[in-house]
Amino acid sequence: MNASMPSAGATILIVDDVPENLAVAHDALDAAGYTVRVATSGIAALESARRQPPDLILLDAVMPGLDGFETCRRLKADLSTRQIPVVFMTGLTDSEHVVLGFQAGGIDYVTKPIRPQEVLARIASHLRSARLVADTQAAADAAGDAIVAIDETGRLSWATPLAQTWLAPLSD
Q: Which residues pair with 36 in a beta bridge?
Protein backbone atom coordinates (compact mmCIF):
# COMPACT_ATOMS: atom_id res chain seq x y z
CA MET A 1 0.00 0.00 0.00
CA ASN A 2 1.28 3.45 -0.75
CA ALA A 3 0.21 6.66 0.97
CA SER A 4 -1.59 8.13 -2.03
CA MET A 5 -3.70 5.04 -2.60
CA PRO A 6 -4.35 3.40 0.76
CA SER A 7 -6.60 0.80 -0.86
CA ALA A 8 -4.01 -0.47 -3.34
CA GLY A 9 -3.60 -4.17 -2.73
CA ALA A 10 -5.77 -4.21 0.40
CA THR A 11 -8.26 -7.02 0.92
CA ILE A 12 -11.38 -6.48 3.00
CA LEU A 13 -13.46 -9.36 4.33
CA ILE A 14 -17.12 -8.36 4.82
CA VAL A 15 -19.07 -10.58 7.20
CA ASP A 16 -22.86 -10.24 7.21
CA ASP A 17 -25.76 -12.67 6.88
CA VAL A 18 -27.99 -10.18 5.01
CA PRO A 19 -27.35 -10.10 1.24
CA GLU A 20 -28.53 -6.48 0.89
CA ASN A 21 -26.01 -5.32 3.51
CA LEU A 22 -23.24 -7.27 1.81
CA ALA A 23 -24.12 -5.70 -1.54
CA VAL A 24 -23.99 -2.10 -0.25
CA ALA A 25 -20.64 -2.57 1.49
CA HIS A 26 -19.20 -4.66 -1.35
CA ASP A 27 -20.13 -2.12 -4.01
CA ALA A 28 -18.63 0.81 -2.07
CA LEU A 29 -15.39 -1.05 -1.32
CA ASP A 30 -15.08 -2.43 -4.84
CA ALA A 31 -15.58 1.05 -6.34
CA ALA A 32 -12.82 2.36 -4.04
CA GLY A 33 -10.38 -0.22 -5.40
CA TYR A 34 -10.34 -2.75 -2.58
CA THR A 35 -10.28 -6.49 -3.15
CA VAL A 36 -13.44 -7.71 -1.43
CA ARG A 37 -14.25 -11.12 0.00
CA VAL A 38 -17.49 -12.02 1.74
CA ALA A 39 -18.58 -14.44 4.43
CA THR A 40 -22.17 -14.95 5.56
CA SER A 41 -21.48 -16.40 9.01
CA GLY A 42 -19.03 -16.16 11.87
CA ILE A 43 -17.70 -19.65 11.22
CA ALA A 44 -17.13 -18.88 7.53
CA ALA A 45 -15.34 -15.66 8.52
CA LEU A 46 -12.99 -17.52 10.88
CA GLU A 47 -12.17 -20.09 8.21
CA SER A 48 -11.61 -17.42 5.54
CA ALA A 49 -9.41 -15.28 7.81
CA ARG A 50 -7.25 -18.26 8.82
CA ARG A 51 -6.94 -19.55 5.26
CA GLN A 52 -6.04 -16.19 3.71
CA PRO A 53 -5.85 -13.30 6.20
CA PRO A 54 -7.46 -10.11 4.91
CA ASP A 55 -6.07 -6.66 5.66
CA LEU A 56 -9.26 -5.69 7.52
CA ILE A 57 -12.59 -7.26 8.47
CA LEU A 58 -15.97 -5.47 8.42
CA LEU A 59 -18.05 -7.56 10.83
CA ASP A 60 -21.77 -7.56 11.56
CA ALA A 61 -22.53 -8.12 15.25
CA VAL A 62 -25.90 -9.83 14.83
CA MET A 63 -25.80 -13.12 12.94
CA PRO A 64 -27.36 -16.51 13.61
CA GLY A 65 -25.09 -19.05 15.24
CA LEU A 66 -21.77 -17.46 16.04
CA ASP A 67 -22.45 -13.74 16.46
CA GLY A 68 -19.98 -11.01 15.53
CA PHE A 69 -18.81 -10.39 19.09
CA GLU A 70 -17.80 -14.03 19.58
CA THR A 71 -16.33 -14.18 16.07
CA CYS A 72 -14.13 -11.20 16.93
CA ARG A 73 -13.10 -12.73 20.27
CA ARG A 74 -12.04 -15.91 18.44
CA LEU A 75 -10.13 -13.93 15.81
CA LYS A 76 -8.25 -12.09 18.55
CA ALA A 77 -7.54 -15.32 20.47
CA ASP A 78 -5.79 -16.86 17.44
CA LEU A 79 -2.18 -15.73 16.92
CA SER A 80 -2.58 -16.10 13.14
CA THR A 81 -5.54 -13.67 12.95
CA ARG A 82 -5.02 -11.48 16.02
CA GLN A 83 -3.43 -8.59 14.11
CA ILE A 84 -6.30 -8.20 11.60
CA PRO A 85 -8.20 -4.97 12.33
CA VAL A 86 -11.91 -5.61 12.91
CA VAL A 87 -14.50 -2.89 12.32
CA PHE A 88 -17.98 -3.68 13.57
CA MET A 89 -20.73 -2.75 11.12
CA THR A 90 -24.09 -3.24 12.79
CA GLY A 91 -27.56 -1.93 13.50
CA LEU A 92 -26.94 -2.17 17.26
CA THR A 93 -26.60 1.41 18.47
CA ASP A 94 -26.85 1.11 22.27
CA SER A 95 -23.76 2.11 24.19
CA GLU A 96 -23.56 -1.36 25.76
CA HIS A 97 -23.19 -2.93 22.30
CA VAL A 98 -20.53 -0.43 21.24
CA VAL A 99 -18.60 -1.28 24.42
CA LEU A 100 -19.02 -5.01 23.74
CA GLY A 101 -17.56 -4.49 20.28
CA PHE A 102 -14.45 -2.82 21.63
CA GLN A 103 -14.13 -5.35 24.46
CA ALA A 104 -14.27 -8.16 21.90
CA GLY A 105 -11.29 -6.62 20.11
CA GLY A 106 -12.83 -4.35 17.49
CA ILE A 107 -10.99 -1.16 16.54
CA ASP A 108 -14.05 0.73 15.34
CA TYR A 109 -17.83 0.55 15.31
CA VAL A 110 -20.08 1.91 12.56
CA THR A 111 -23.84 1.69 12.54
CA LYS A 112 -26.21 0.69 9.76
CA PRO A 113 -27.33 1.97 7.47
CA ILE A 114 -23.70 2.64 6.67
CA ARG A 115 -22.52 5.90 5.18
CA PRO A 116 -20.11 4.59 2.52
CA GLN A 117 -17.81 7.64 2.40
CA GLU A 118 -17.41 7.60 6.19
CA VAL A 119 -16.75 3.86 6.24
CA LEU A 120 -14.18 4.21 3.45
CA ALA A 121 -12.38 6.98 5.35
CA ARG A 122 -12.32 4.90 8.53
CA ILE A 123 -11.03 1.85 6.66
CA ALA A 124 -8.25 3.87 5.00
CA SER A 125 -7.19 5.24 8.38
CA HIS A 126 -7.16 1.81 10.04
CA LEU A 127 -5.26 0.29 7.13
CA ARG A 128 -2.57 2.98 7.41
CA SER A 129 -2.16 2.20 11.12
CA ALA A 130 -2.10 -1.55 10.51
CA ARG A 131 0.51 -1.10 7.78
CA LEU A 132 2.78 0.83 10.18
CA VAL A 133 2.51 -1.96 12.75
CA ALA A 134 3.17 -4.62 10.10
CA ASP A 135 6.19 -2.71 8.75
CA THR A 136 7.62 -2.37 12.27
CA GLN A 137 7.13 -6.07 12.91
CA ALA A 138 8.72 -6.95 9.56
CA ALA A 139 11.75 -4.81 10.42
CA ALA A 140 12.13 -6.58 13.77
CA ASP A 141 11.76 -9.97 12.03
CA ALA A 142 14.41 -9.03 9.46
CA ALA A 143 16.81 -7.85 12.16
CA GLY A 144 16.78 -11.32 13.68
CA ASP A 145 15.99 -10.02 17.15
CA ALA A 146 14.02 -12.03 19.70
CA ILE A 147 11.12 -9.74 20.55
CA VAL A 148 7.71 -10.53 22.03
CA ALA A 149 4.62 -8.39 22.56
CA ILE A 150 2.32 -9.18 25.44
CA ASP A 151 -1.23 -7.77 25.61
CA GLU A 152 -2.90 -6.29 28.68
CA THR A 153 -4.12 -9.74 29.77
CA GLY A 154 -0.61 -11.17 29.75
CA ARG A 155 -1.23 -13.16 26.56
CA LEU A 156 1.38 -13.33 23.80
CA SER A 157 0.11 -11.14 20.98
CA TRP A 158 3.12 -11.27 18.65
CA ALA A 159 6.66 -12.63 18.51
CA THR A 160 9.50 -12.47 16.02
CA PRO A 161 10.46 -15.79 14.42
CA LEU A 162 13.51 -16.12 16.70
CA ALA A 163 11.39 -15.51 19.80
CA GLN A 164 8.83 -18.06 18.56
CA THR A 165 11.62 -20.62 18.20
CA TRP A 166 12.83 -19.96 21.72
CA LEU A 167 9.29 -20.06 23.16
CA ALA A 168 8.19 -23.22 21.32
CA PRO A 169 9.57 -25.67 23.93
CA LEU A 170 7.65 -23.82 26.63
CA SER A 171 4.31 -24.41 24.92
CA ASP A 172 4.75 -28.17 24.63
A: 12
